[in-house]
Structure formats: structure tokens, C-alpha cells
């Protein structure tokens, strides 16, 4: 297998954009990383970019074309999103399990997850996922609101609980009728 060159990305104004290349578009077409822009580039989420950086598929540069290390990238991402690491641990775990995971802000959730073999656009996501740290608390009101979002979008609610060792346990919640 021939190793492909890393895809260049630029991290400015809180977004990560790939170069305009066939390799970048292939990331989207094959594995649904990011979203395509009108210019033929791929805009990656903060989580997708770190995942691809760890997999050595991309190189991330700042606005001055300085290549960022993983640690420098994490510092920038945490400034943008304080709960970045907990959310990333869940993102990485789900991706490593072979699922496509995308942001779900328009659904009022953190992520949406597609069943294996399903690509966004071909069918709907099966779950909405809320990453939480095991030491955090969730009120019944917050829990009910998350469950309501999942139910109203016809998706299953999944909580991804991250422990101090960055292991994830998943809890799926379903509506039932007595």
C-alpha cells in the first residue's frame, strides 16, 4: 500500500479548511470527514481535524503557515471549546469503532452517529450523542431535555461517559410505553 502525502490544512478563525485537492475531497467522499465547500475544499470540525492529525492524514498550519504540533492544536481547540477533550474522546472512540460521527448542533445535540455502512445523505443518523465526564452531574431537567431532542428528531439518545483514563462507556436511552 502506498502512503499518501499528508493533506495541508489551515486553522484560522476557528475553522479548519483543507487545500483544494483530490486527496482532500477523497476524505469526504470515502469517509465523510468534514463538509465540502463551494471552492472544492473540505471544512473539518475541530474533532475531525485532531483525529486526522493523530492518524497522520493531515498537516495543520496556522494563519502564518506555521505547522502546529498536536499539543499546539489541542491548546487552540480547548480555547475555542472548553469541553473539547471529553467530546474528542467520544468522537475518536466512535470513529475507531467504524461509525461515521458528525456534529449535531442543528439538532441541539453534540454529535449524530450513523449506523455502520450508512453515509450521511444516504440515510438518517441513528443516534444523537452527548459526551459527559463521569464526574459531572446532569439534572433530571437536562436529562429530559436531551431525551426530548432525541425523540423529536427520531433518533436514539446515547450518553458517552468518559472516565479519568479516557475510556468510554455508552448508555442508550429509549422511550417506552407502560
Structural notes for this entry:
There is one protein chain. The model has no long low-confidence stretch (mean pLDDT 91). It is built from five helices and ten strands, in the order ββαββαβααβββαββ. The chain has two domains: 7-80, MutS, DNA mismatch repair protein, domain I (3-Layer(aba) Sandwich), CATH 3.40.1170; 84-173, 3-Layer(aba) Sandwich (Trna Endonuclease, Chain: A, domain 1), CATH 3.40.1350.10. It has helices spanning 22-31, 46-54, 70-80, 84-96, 140-152; strands at residues 7-12, 15-18, 35-36, 42-44, 58-61, 100-103, 111-114, 127-133, 156-162, 168-173. It has 178 residues and is α+β, with helices and mostly antiparallel strands. The protein is globular and about 60 Å long. The longest helix is centred in the middle third of the chain and has 13 residues, at 84-96. The chain starts with 6 loop residues before the first strand and ends in a 5-residue tail after the last strand. The strands form two sheets. Strands 3-4-2-1-5 form a five-stranded mixed sheet. Strands 6-7-8-9-10 form a five-stranded mixed sheet. The protein is 31% helix and 26% strand.
Main features:
MutS, DNA mismatch repair protein, domain I; Trna Endonuclease, Chain: A, domain 1; single chain; 5 helices; globular; alpha+beta
What order do the helices and strands come in, and which of them pair?
Blueprint: E1 7-12, E2 15-18, H1 22-31, E3 35-36, E4 42-44, H2 46-54, E5 58-61, H3 70-80, H4 84-96, E6 100-103, E7 111-114, E8 127-133, H5 140-152, E9 156-162, E10 168-173
Parallel strand pairs: 1-5, 8-9
Antiparallel strand pairs: 1-2, 2-4, 3-4, 6-7, 7-8, 9-10
Helix pairs in contact: 2-3, 2-4
Amino acid at each position: 500500500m502506498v502512503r499518501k502525502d499528508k493533506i495541508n490544512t489551515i486553522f484560522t478563525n476557528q475553522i479548519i479548511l483543507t487545500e483544494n485537492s483530490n486527496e482532500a475531497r477523497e476524505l469526504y467522499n470515502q469517509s465523510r470527514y468534514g463538509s465540502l465547500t463551494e471552492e472544492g475544499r473540505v471544512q473539518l470540525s475541530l474533532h475531525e481535524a485532531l483525529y486526522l492529525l493523530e492518524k497522520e492524514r493531515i498537516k495543520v498550519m496556522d494563519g502564518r503557515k506555521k505547522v502546529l504540533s498536536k499539543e499546539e492544536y489541542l491548546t487552540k481547540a480547548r480555547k475555542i471549546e472548553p469541553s473539547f477533550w471529553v467530546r474528542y474522546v467520544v468522537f475518536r472512540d466512535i470513529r475507531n469503532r467504524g461509525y461515521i460521527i458528525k456534529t449535531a448542533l442543528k439538532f441541539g445535540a453534540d454529535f449524530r452517529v450513523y449506523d455502520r455502512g450508512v453515509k450521511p445523505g444516504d440515510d438518517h443518523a441513528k443516534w444523537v450523542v452527548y459526551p459527559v465526564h463521569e464526574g459531572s452531574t446532569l439534572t433530571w431537567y437536562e436529562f429530559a431535555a436531551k431525551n426530548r431532542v432525541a425523540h423529536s428528531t427520531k433518533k436514539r439518545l446515547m450518553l458517552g461517559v468518559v472516565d479519568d483514563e479516557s475510556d468510554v462507556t455508552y448508555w442508550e436511552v429509549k422511550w417506552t410505553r407502560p
